[in-house]
Design goal:
The protein is an alpha/beta fold and 239 residues long. Strand 1 (22-27), helix 2 and strand 2 form a beta-alpha-beta unit. A 7-stranded parallel β-sheet has the order 3-2-1-4-5-7-6, sandwiched between helices. It has a single domain, classed as Rossmann fold (3-Layer(aba) Sandwich). The chain has helices spanning 6-14, 34-46, 70-81, 102-113, 125-129, 140-143, 160-166, 197-205, 216-225, 233-236; strands spanning 22-27, 51-56, 87-89, 119-124, 145-149, 170-171, 185-188. Bound molecules: adenosine-5'-triphosphate. Residues 27-30, 35-36, 39, 123-124, 126-127, 149, 151, 193, 195-198 line the site of adenosine-5'-triphosphate.
């Protein structure tokens, strides 16, 4: 279920001369956690975004296929975002065949919202440092702004190829996001939460609790379906 409807897009695009930007946070969300949710809420408020779309990928382009199905990861995103105004669980990558490329996702959203509404691709610092490995990465800013949210422990300089792409596009004023539909790169500080899905999967696999790192409803679903359990001892014993 995609949540921007043609009517919504028209409303967003025409209520003011500078329409509110829409944020897009793509990820594996394997599983979604407070590192995603808290930072997204801060951006929603700080940048006055109309919405933040959480877009789980169908087949991640940059990592091994997760053990949990795409539909289950989407369900976790739905459970986590339910009830927060402005948060949208967006299934558009699950409805598309093949690997999930963000450039295709942005083009699809651009077609829905029209040429004027600013789109903001939201990425963590770690994902941003790999941007030059993404499919058709130099086209991303033709379709959207990029908002980089700070993540703990990632302070190294950018790779030179990325640095030369970024430098002329950096914007320092969040208001610039709404003055044009895309093309800028904004570095936005957010509360540093050193939480990762990797850590949560590892805790669950060891039989430990990841409670307070992710929403209770997400954890309840994980337990209910027996997701992220360690392989059975029989399978991990040596021959
Ligand atoms: P994994 O540990 O499996 O690699 P992850 O926790 O990094 O997963 P993803 O779904 O890969 O989660 O991340 C989606 C996006 O959210 C990426 O842009 C990533 O940089 C960002 N992100 C993830 N965790 C945090 C966090 N704690 N703070 C800020 N951004 C985050």
């Amino acid at each position: 279920m995609s949540t921007i409807l043609p009517g919504d897009a028209a409303r967003i695009a025409h209520t003011s001369r500078h329409p509110q930007p829409i944020g897009i946070l793509g990820g594996t969300f394997d599983p979604i956690h407070y590192g995603h949710l808290r930072t997204a809420l801060e951006l929603l408020e700080a940048l006055d975004l109309a919405q933040v779309h959480f877009v789980p990928c169908r087949i991640p382009a940059h990592r091994a296929t997760p053990a949990v199905t795409a539909e289950q990861r989407l369900t976790l995103v739905r459970l986590a975002t339910l009830g927060q105004p402005g948060f949208v669980a967006d299934d558009r990558e699950l409805r598309r065949e093949g690997p999930s490329y963000m450039v295709d996702t942005l083009a699809a959203l651009r077609a829905v919202v029209g040429a004027e509404t600013p789109l903001c691709l939201i990425v963590g610092t770690d994902a941003f440092r790999e941007l030059h490995t993404w499919s058709r990465w130099q086209s991303l800013t033709d379709l959207a702004h990029i908002v980089v949210m700070q993540r703990p422990g990632i302070l190294q300089p950018l790779p030179p190829l990325l640095e030369s792409f970024v430098t002329p596009r950096v914007i320092y004023d969040a208001n610039d996001l709404r003055r044009r539909p895309g093309g800028g790169i904004l570095f936005q500080p957010v509360t540093q939460l050193n939480i990762s899905a990797t850590q949560i999967r590892a805790l669950l696999a060891r039989g430990h609790s990841p409670r307070y790192l992710l929403p209770e409803a997400v954890l309840a679903y994980i337990h209910d379906r027996g997701l992220y359990r360690s392989p059975s001892p029989a399978l991990s014993l040596p021959d």
